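User: My advisor, Dr. K., asked me to get a structural model of this assembly before our group meeting. I'm new to this, so sorry if the format is off. These are the inputs:
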Amino acid sequence: MRLAIEQARIAEENGDVPIGAVIVGENRIIGKAYNQREQLQDPTAHAEIIALTQAAAALENWHLNGCTIYVTLEPCPMCAGALVLARIDRLVYGCDDPKAGACKSLYNIVQDERLNHRLEVTSGVLVEQCSKLLRDFFSQRRVKNAQ
Amino acid sequence: MRLAIEQARIAEENGDVPIGAVIVGENRIIGKAYNQREQLQDPTAHAEIIALTQAAAALENWHLNGCTIYVTLEPCPMCAGALVLARIDRLVYGCDDPKAGACKSLYNIVQDERLNHRLEVTSGVLVEQCSKLLRDFFSQRRVKNAQ
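Assistant: The format is fine. Below is the predicted structure of the whole assembly, which you can bring to the meeting.
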């Protein structure tokens, strides 16, 4: 999760909402990414989506069974859906997202028995550091917008 | 939708489940893609995700307000979430997906009032052609697997 937080800081430096993700598989890091929505002007460029693409490329296989993803924020519907599609085993995340979270807050897509895969979920890891990053980012943005 | 069906046929030629998507904005086609999950070995490479990335690149802007996406199959949670994130105006799709559809069947992510954007949805367009493509693909695959 510390590495995911480092990734989130890179997003922040680029003017993007600070969210980072790391994927571990076969005892090594196979995906490491940060939110690049503004930088790439791509609505799908969330940290998790980029990390999943990297991880599948590293394994040369879209089935990510046996892998764990670490994310600083509770994934949104797009990213939660992607985690299920990738058949990833485990999701570890930092803080909840009451506005758009899809792994507990608004939906629980990653543990929906109607879908063909479910993940083990651990939340609240390094929660204070993960949420402070976001709080600081949005409060600085509010100050900038008010100027 | 006819163009989306043409895209779906390309997916099929590549051994991928035949699903195609087209995005129209500013009175022109700004995204056109087919499912490439197997071809790219990328779990996120659904037709909609690729088309959204193309469309945002064409407009040099991730806000796709004013655009319409045509898809042959009801989008899954990942793709439905991506449509909301992209702030696209309208979704037109062919056949429902009772197993993983997230715009009517299992969820209705694209019209969830808790999220910060909602889409207008039209379903059942060229439904017979869209569903026949999928039926034929899966029945051929069953025959191959049985051999």
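One thing worth pointing out at the meeting: Residues 23 and 29 of chain B are 6 Å apart (CA to CA).

User: Perfect, thanks a lot.
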